[in-house]
């Protein structure tokens, strides 16, 4: 029975937590700047570069960071995903140590769409001669103008992912009675070893 | 029989009308694409000078500015005739929203014209004077493209 007891464990390291909240803040801010910001998008570009730096950090942290930040703990066997899905509707906390198999998929998807977003932004040419991505002239005007459309598509995907992310957090909070926000603030989470 | 011949006559008499309509549409598309390309060429000159990719040349800058000024006075919205929206004809990125908000569309061209007024003079006197003109003009390109041009 002792094995079934949940323990409070320091699961998210400080760097990862700082990364998470900075990323959340900057992505939301840059999304809003993209849609509703000034016509001269200087600030959008600078926040975009900061997001590039954050993503670079995350990729490095996924290789050299602590266990729960490692990519190795992001990739689960498909069977553990379906297994997790089966139990997910149970009205009890998951007490999962780190990224659960489904949440890990969401993390991978969000990182990929953000990499897509900064990549297309850097090469986008909206043909207005002011808000041209710094690398647009490296890829040729055909790709650069297409990248502008891909960037707008990426923005829609990001909106969907962010809403799904928040919905999942609410689902855990309300349905499963598990607070996932506090662990991302303090680092401490109630977990059960598996 | 009567119906068939009537249809045939109708079709034959209508044919030149269709053909005519087609010309009008093709001309409008070609003209407005050419118009935008001319804007882009001259903006390219100014933006290149502003960034230092093209060496500043007062006469060339002034010509580009004056060209944009002239284009800003052209009633280009008349080229956005019915039936030329994206989806209605090939090779049009003009969104249907143009025909739903004609006044706003015309206003956005007027904004370009206003930003372009005096551009030929404003870019004289040194490379540092080009950037602000490019920004002012470029902002009006973006505002209109955001609402009325399909990205692809
Ligand atoms: C995760 C980071 C980013 C987010 C969330 C984001 C979001 C957006 C959004 C929502 C738009 C408006 C799209 C639309 O018209 O529907 C936009 C436009 C744009 N962004 Fe980003 N962006 C990001 C990163 C970047 C980066 C790194 C750059 C380049 C350095 C960049 C350059 C641009 C450009 C050039 C446009 C086009 C403006 C236009 O078409 O008028 N973005 N972005």
TrEMBL record, chain A:
<protein>
    <submittedName>
        <fullName>Cytochrome B</fullName>
    </submittedName>
</protein>
<dbReference type="GO" id="GO:0022904">
    <property type="term" value="P:respiratory electron transport chain"/>
</dbReference>
<dbReference type="InterPro" id="IPR051542">
    <property type="entry name" value="Hydrogenase_cytochrome"/>
</dbReference>
<feature type="transmembrane region" description="Helical">
    <location>
        <begin position="45"/>
        <end position="64"/>
    </location>
</feature>
<dbReference type="GO" id="GO:0009055">
    <property type="term" value="F:electron transfer activity"/>
</dbReference>
<dbReference type="GO" id="GO:0005886">
    <property type="term" value="C:plasma membrane"/>
</dbReference>
<feature type="transmembrane region" description="Helical">
    <location>
        <begin position="157"/>
        <end position="175"/>
    </location>
</feature>
<keyword id="KW-1133">Transmembrane helix</keyword>
<keyword id="KW-0812">Transmembrane</keyword>
<dbReference type="Pfam" id="PF01292">
    <property type="entry name" value="Ni_hydr_CYTB"/>
</dbReference>
<dbReference type="GO" id="GO:0020037">
    <property type="term" value="F:heme binding"/>
</dbReference>
<feature type="transmembrane region" description="Helical">
    <location>
        <begin position="102"/>
        <end position="124"/>
    </location>
</feature>
<feature type="transmembrane region" description="Helical">
    <location>
        <begin position="15"/>
        <end position="33"/>
    </location>
</feature>
<dbReference type="InterPro" id="IPR011577">
    <property type="entry name" value="Cyt_b561_bac/Ni-Hgenase"/>
</dbReference>
<keyword id="KW-1003">Cell membrane</keyword>
<keyword id="KW-0472">Membrane</keyword>
<dbReference type="InterPro" id="IPR016174">
    <property type="entry name" value="Di-haem_cyt_TM"/>
</dbReference>
<feature type="domain" description="Cytochrome b561 bacterial/Ni-hydrogenase">
    <location>
        <begin position="12"/>
        <end position="187"/>
    </location>
</feature>
From TrEMBL, chain B:
<feature type="binding site" description="covalent">
    <location>
        <position position="141"/>
    </location>
    <ligand>
        <name>heme c</name>
    </ligand>
</feature>
<dbReference type="InterPro" id="IPR002321">
    <property type="entry name" value="Cyt_c_II"/>
</dbReference>
<keyword id="KW-0732">Signal</keyword>
<feature type="binding site" description="axial binding residue">
    <location>
        <position position="145"/>
    </location>
    <ligand>
        <name>heme c</name>
    </ligand>
</feature>
<dbReference type="Pfam" id="PF01322">
    <property type="entry name" value="Cytochrom_C_2"/>
</dbReference>
<keyword id="KW-0479">Metal-binding</keyword>
<feature type="signal peptide">
    <location>
        <begin position="1"/>
        <end position="21"/>
    </location>
</feature>
<dbReference type="InterPro" id="IPR010980">
    <property type="entry name" value="Cyt_c/b562"/>
</dbReference>
<feature type="binding site" description="covalent">
    <location>
        <position position="144"/>
    </location>
    <ligand>
        <name>heme c</name>
    </ligand>
</feature>
<keyword id="KW-0249">Electron transport</keyword>
<dbReference type="GO" id="GO:0005506">
    <property type="term" value="F:iron ion binding"/>
</dbReference>
<keyword id="KW-0349">Heme</keyword>
<keyword id="KW-0813">Transport</keyword>
<dbReference type="GO" id="GO:0042597">
    <property type="term" value="C:periplasmic space"/>
</dbReference>
<dbReference type="GO" id="GO:0022900">
    <property type="term" value="P:electron transport chain"/>
</dbReference>
<protein>
    <submittedName>
        <fullName>Cytochrome c</fullName>
    </submittedName>
</protein>
<keyword id="KW-0408">Iron</keyword>
<dbReference type="InterPro" id="IPR012127">
    <property type="entry name" value="Cyt_c_prime"/>
</dbReference>
<dbReference type="GO" id="GO:0020037">
    <property type="term" value="F:heme binding"/>
</dbReference>
<dbReference type="GO" id="GO:0009055">
    <property type="term" value="F:electron transfer activity"/>
</dbReference>
